[in-house]
Design brief:
Blueprint (H helix, E strand, L loop, with lengths): L8 H11 L3 E2 L2 H7 L10 E5 L4 H14 L3 E4 L15 E5 L6 E5 L4 E4 L5 H10 L2 E2 L12 H7 L6 H4 L6 E7 L5 E5 L11 H5 L8 E8 L1 E2 L3 E9 L2 H13 L6 E5 L1 H10 L10 E9 L3 H12 L5 E5 L2 H12 L1 H4 L6 E5 L8 H14 L5 E5 L4 E8 L4 H20 L22 H14 L12
Parallel strand pairs: 2-4, 3-4
Antiparallel strand pairs: 1-2, 5-6, 6-10, 7-11, 8-9, 8-10, 12-14, 12-15, 13-14, 13-17, 16-18, 17-18
Helix pairs in contact: 13-14
Length: about 450
């Protein structure tokens, strides 16, 4: 398929008439939208920000007729280049579709636009005694629509699952302008194919989501956290196994490897002693009566830890979790540029995978920064480098791709939550026939291939 190579004067007039002040052709403005957190630059003709479904429908009718590429975009936080414009086209920002239409305490359902900030939705739910569990670490920066596009996981996935487990329905505009409605407000619906779930994780390749219907849960009355230190990651993950063997399911469980602790010590004050080289961070939640019992039960399984600190008030928990939250910013002492992996492996292979990734990094003269969601085997395998140094860049990319190959040896996935975007070669994981089938499904929704080309699959 040949796409439009530039906008004509007639194209510009159409966009100005449709979007008014919510269209931009300004090069300074477009520079912001020409990349995302994956830092892959591209070329775009314009940015549009629809504020209602009618605008989305008319725009998608026009874009399909004119064969103009459309790059859907939330808040641009993709670390896999999910909304980087690999082909020149128009960025459609969903930030104007940011209404919270309803939060029902009787139906346990929220209806929201895709541009709603994840943290904003969570805060509004909590005011009503409800909980939207998907909890990506970047929740204050991400949009709900972006989370759905990548099936984001997060800190609480070990107990509560990932984004797909909370999407009951969605409204979607496909190329040509047709508005489709999948699912609805019921928590159970087995009529027809589950096209709602097909949209979750589709990375903007099937349609523009204009409304989401989300499942909510009652907000737990209380929570508590415990940070425990070990001499090595080996000892930490052995201790983690004891917790699950005891039948304890924490609401969150994070691990931090040896290099992470070096970075945290180098960049700020740390409460743990020098003998601690790896950390596990647990959270449990429930009723006011049961949480003290659960945290005590958890503590008994961690009797081999060198050090521990427990938080039972919101302030104490925030102080504990601050150590986990500052890893990403602190890691830049290792280099001005970063490429991050988000591989997932079976929980029992977590230690083997991390040690293999570390060996790959060393073979290429690099150091691995490994941390992540231990409870579901999701590893953030980050490498820092200097992009202005060709040799450093080459060695870093070689190590990164070798880790993607290695994760498959452990029965894992090259992406646990960020998606394929344009930075991951998903063909390494997907079989030829499976990949062809996915692309055939894509062609049903988008015959001309104008939506987010070269992304995901």
């Amino acid at each position: 398929m040949t796409f439009a190579a530039a906008l004509t004067d007639a194209h510009r007039v159409f966009l100005e008439d449709l979007f008014g002040e919510n269209v931009s052709f300004d090069k300074k403005v477009l520079r912001v939208y020409a990349s995302d957190a994956g830092l892959v630059p591209g070329e775009i003709f314009a940015m549009v920000r629809p504020v209602d479904v009618a605008q989305v429908r008319e725009f998608m009718r026009w874009a399909d007729a004119e064969t103009i590429v459309v790059h859907p975009r939330g808040r641009g936080t993709s670390l896999a280049g999910g909304c980087a414009p690999t082909v020149p086209g128009i960025v459609l920002s969903t930030m104007g579709l940011d209404a919270i239409m309803d939060i029902s305490a009787t139906d346990f359902v929220a209806e929201v636009g895709p541009g709603v900030c994840t943290a904003t939705l969570q805060a509004e739910c909590e005011k009503r005694g409800l909980m939207y569990p998907p909890d990506p670490a970047s929740g204050k920066a991400t949009s709900v629509g972006g989370n759905v596009a990548t099936c984001a996981g997060g800190l609480k996935a070990v107990k509560y699952g990932v984004t797909r487990d909370y999407v009951l329905g969605c409204d979607v505009v496909v190329p040509g302008g047709k508005l489709l409605t999948f699912g609805g407000c019921t928590h159970k619906d087995v009529v027809g194919l589950d096209l709602t779930r097909l949209m979750v994780g589709s990375e903007g390749t099937l349609g523009i989501i204009t409304k989401l219907t989300l499942k909510l849960l009652p907000k737990p009355e209380a929570s508590a956290s415990i940070l425990v230190g070990y001499p090595s990651l080996d000892a930490a993950l052995l201790s983690m196994g004891k917790v699950f063997d005891a039948g304890i399911l924490p609401s969150a469980l994070e691990f931090m490897g040896e290099t992470v602790l070096e970075i945290l010590r180098e960049t700020g004050a740390t409460p743990w002693p020098e003998t601690v080289n790896s950390l596990l961070l647990f959270q449990v939640d429930g009723s006011r009566e049961t949480v003290p019992l659960e945290i005590a039960r958890l503590g008994r399984q961690l009797d081999d830890a060198l050090w521990r600190i427990t938080g039972v008030t919101p302030e104490e928990e925030n102080a504990i979790w601050a150590h986990r939250r500052r890893i990403s910013a602190a890691s830049y002492v290792m280099g001005p540029d970063r490429i991050g992996g988000d591989m997932a492996v079976p929980r029992g292979r977590l230690l083997d995978a991390v040690r293999r990734f570390e060996a790959i990094a060393r073979e290429n003269g690099k150091r691995l920064i490994a941390f992540g969601h231990a409870g579901d085997g999701n590893i953030h395998a980050n490498l820092h480098y200097d992009a202005s140094d060709p040799d450093d860049t080459e060695r870093t990319m070689k190590a990164h791709h070798a880790m993607d190959e290695a994760v498959l040896e452990f029965g894992g996935s090259i992406s646990g939550e960020h998606g394929g975007g344009c930075l991951k070669d998903v063909g390494r994981q997907l079989g030829k026939d499976e990949l062809a089938l996915m692309r055939a499904v894509r062609a049903v929704f988008d015959p001309k291939g104008i939506l987010n080309p070269n992304k995901g699959y």
